[in-house]
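Now for one protein, fold included:
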Amino acid sequence: MILLSDDNEAEEIAEGRISDKLLVKMISTAEKYGLRGDLYGNYIACKLILNENEYAKACEKRTGGKECSIDAFARKDAEVLLKIFGKDEEQYTPAFENTGSEDFRAGKKIMKLCEQLRNCCRQNEILKVLSGFYSENGIGIFALYRGFIIGEDGALTPVSRYSDATFEKIYGYERQKKQLKTNTEAFLDGQPANNVLLYGDSGTGKSTAVKALLSEYEKKGLRIVGVQKHQFVKLSGIISQLSKRKQKFIILLDDLSFENFETEYKYLKAIIEGGVAEKPDNILIYATSNRRHLVTETFAEREGGGDIHREETTSEKVSLSERFGLQIYYAKPDKQEYMDIVMFLAEKHFPEMDKNTLIAGANAFAVKHGGFSGRAATQYIMSLCAENNKKIELPLE
């Protein structure tokens, strides 16, 4: 079969010959994704999304709905799918639904596709639904998930939970948010866009702002891949893999900095600019850091430190920051701005609390927790939620 890699399973379901082994796999899939209703149909819909077959790849790249030769070969498979989605539903209710998980969000897409396929009466309708899904959402894990990390084996792995931060929930920093959104929108529209460095004081919401981009632009095909410093050696392979996909990817390097003895920054420099292969058009690199110059530079180096070519050594380290065409500065809020953030967060969670009591508590909290910052304001409200046994609606940024 073209549409499904394991034709035996599809034929088992179509002909009603469901083995115990297959039944266990269907139940396991339903529990993982929180799939309700049609046990058989949801399982096959999930496989149709995750199986990166040649038909799905062709549909992902296709524009204008033009029919291709491969459609003729897929019609035979569509006949089997008609039998599956035309059968009476075997109703299933998951034992547990983790509504905050990325698996649960993916499950909604699976169930929607299953419903659309159940409404089909002809082969061409099946193929039209599938073609439309692949064209709009992509295929494989990138069709179901929005945030990824690199596993220890070097493979891309969907994150189990992702921040639901939105720009509306982030108080202040309007200029910074506008710069970030403008650059990202240009990237998604196929226009020239820069790699971005968000730098400045800790606790100012740099990472949260990048994560909020997904809530804003996920439907336009944006995905985020988090990469840690020790994984930079794997970046070339990951970028090569992502370059073949329909979606646009932001590679997020969170809390980025390098000590004098660390050399991973050289991998990053080659990736951003200067390597043999150019960075693909569907990938940008966004980094957050507490300092603008990402590689530590000592006074000894500035004064020579035994290095004959001191200026060249210094220039090499500074040049990493310069390869981020857009640099956005986040300053720590002053006392009034800190209080404004506290009141902004308290308006939703503690509208009934006396303002003076809030301010006094926020002042005391800041003194004990390193001064005024958006993070301190968030932590203060979270502590109030805990003290008052209130459910915390995250994110609080």
